[in-house]
Amino acid sequence: EEFRKIAHAIIKGKTFQDPGEIERALKLISVDDFWEPLRKRLGLKDERAAKGYVQQFVTRRHHIVHEADTYKSKRYHDQPRPITRPYAQECVKKIRRFVEAGHKVVVGKLGD
């Protein structure tokens, strides 16, 4: 119980958005082969495509959280980045698909 508490305290505040962070977290629960089965479920060409599937949205999320979603370049400094409803809808759709496929992979590896 004490080791579970320690592990929980360490990971409860972490985000698991980056492919490396996802991989490390899954290894904690003995899921060593995640990307290839995920790639197959998503119908992607290779593991690299699976790892990059939601990366553009993770990057945008970082811009929103850490930079108030504004440009930092000299020319456009502090101007807001444009965002459209279709982009936001695509983001939700792809992330939902990624999470659902990832859940199936993990459950398949660990059992119910």
A few lines on this structure:
The protein is mainly α and 112 residues long.
Strand-helix topology:
Layout: H1 2-11, H2 19-28, H3 35-42, H4 47-52, H5 55-67, H6 85-110
Helix pairs in contact: 3-6
Supply the key terms.
6 helices, single chain, globular, mainly alpha, 112 residues
Structural overview:
This protein is mainly α. Helices cover 65% and strands 0% of the residues. It is built from 6 helices and no strands. It has helices at residues 2-11, 19-28, 35-42, 47-52, 55-67, 85-110. Helix 3 crosses helix 6 (85-110). The chain is globular, with a radius of gyration of 17 Å. It starts with a helix and ends with a helix. The mean pLDDT is 89.
The end-to-end distance, rounded to whole angstroms, is 22 Å
Shape: globular
DSSP helical segment count: 6
User: Which blocks of ≥5 consecutive residues have pLDDT under 50?
Assistant: none
Major sheet attributes: none
Q: Return the string of H and E elements.
A: HHHHHH
What fraction, in percent, of the residue positions are helical? 55-70%
Question: What would you report as the Rg, rounded to the nearest angstrom?
Answer: 17 Å
Q: β content, as a range?
A: under 5%
Mean pLDDT: 89
